Amino acid sequence: MAPRFGTARFHVATGPAPLFARVRHVLREPARLTARGPHVTERLERRGAPVEALLAFDPRSWEPVSAEVRTDTGKWVKATWRVRVAGQDWWAVIGYGNTLVTVIDVPPHRQGLGDDIVREGPLYERVAAVNEALMAEA
Question: Is-contact 91 114, C-beta < 8 A?
Answer without folding.
Answer: no
